[in-house]
Prior knowledge:
The complex is a heterodimer.
Chain A: E1 5-7, H1 28-33, E2 36-38, H2 74-82, H3 86-108, H4 111-128, H5 138-164, H6 190-201, H7 204-215, H8 220-227, H9 231-252
Parallel strand pairs in A: 1-2
Helix pairs in contact in A: 2-3, 3-4, 3-5, 4-5, 5-8, 6-9, 7-9, 8-9
Chain B: E1 5-6, E2 12-13, H1 30-39, H2 44-48, H3 50-71, H4 78-94, E3 101-104, E4 111-114, H5 115-127, E5 132-143, E6 155-166, H6 171-190, E7 194-205
Parallel strand pairs in B: 6-7
Antiparallel strand pairs in B: 1-2, 3-4, 5-6
Amino acid sequence: xxxxxxxxxxxxxxxxxxxxxxxxxxxxxxxxxxxxxxxxxxxxxxxxxxxxxxxxxxxxxxxxxxxxxxxxxxxxxxxxxxxxxxxxxxxxxxxxxxxxxxxxxxxxxxxxxxxxxxxxxxxxxxxxxxxxxxxxxxxxxxxxxxxxxxxxxxxxxxxxxxxxxxxxxxxxxxxxxxxxxxxxxxxxxxxxxxxxxxxxxxxxxxxxxxxxxxxxxxxxxxxxxxxxxxxxxxxxxxxxxxxxxxxxxxxxx
Amino acid sequence: xxxxxxxxxxxxxxxxxxxxxxxxxxxxxxxxxxxxxxxxxxxxxxxxxxxxxxxxxxxxxxxxxxxxxxxxxxxxxxxxxxxxxxxxxxxxxxxxxxxxxxxxxxxxxxxxxxxxxxxxxxxxxxxxxxxxxxxxxxxxxxxxxxxxxxxxxxxxxxxxxxxxxxxxxxxxxxxxxxxxxxxxxxxxxxxxxxxxxxxxxxxxxxxx
Lengths: 253, 208
């Protein structure tokens, strides 16, 4: 790139205020390219104003008259993020991460794995967003990524455990080797604790159907899309899960 | 309690034959009865039949604790999203290709602007207009191409932008204004002559 100046973040007067702190990480590019990174560009007549890099934005981000991205609908944010708008993606991720985290937590059964699965899923979503065609809702698409990630994680863990510890670990513990992890150690609701333990004993695909239907409130068609199964299969797995849990909970009561 | 089976891949899965739902002894679909119990829509038979009542009792027995779990709102620690965004920025940086950059016509020498940053500027201009939101914004170099400015060749970009508009705005005048604003922002804020602007209104929204 030689001596070419590279502008990756632009802040313009009072009419246009863009590029949050996130993009300031691009300053690292200067070291890679040998070029000049222009962190802030203020333009009124003059074409450019090249600063030595890295510098903080000349104009601090300020709330302008422009509506915050937080107010934009998913479709708009998805399109923007798919075109490389990091800030739009950040808003989208912020908006949906609680639900995606809940799903991951209930599928894998412990916070550390759920956080890993969520992080990997969001990165995966960023990489694939430009190919997201919008024929399903963004949430459905994101749920699918998280579900697949979690089921893969459980499968890998089961494979690892079966090699190393098969003799020591009871089968029902395989889905959650960290059962009784600190985040639930002080469970005051014994019923909830029992349900959590019972959920871990379900086959993964049944647990996925149960969580998506009963805890996230999704319909059969959407669950079928997320899990890649037919609606009939979803209905069957959900029923198995419900019966299995009812049985465990009946003995608990 | 059934535990499914482990397929060669290792994932515990329900086999295809296991997704069939056995009817209750009275012939009713067990899953239907469960749904009806959960929704409070049991019919006369389901309220009287002992098989249906047993199934409904299971559903209702589970209902409370499932609702309590569904009402839980665990949230991930901020470190998760922070980590994601750091990695995203690193990815953007590492994967920036020459075609992702626009050449700026600069008297001080060649300068380049990332297309994503340029698109952000133009979208922001549209967002600032009453009743308008920018969606897609694609910027393509024309003339001497992305490589730079070699004298006589015209230099500039074309912009294709999709917008959504608030229901009731005068689309003809507002899109004309989008065009003006995009051209002005391209030339003043980015320093890139805008040769043409394609505008498509792709959706309308209502004020809630």
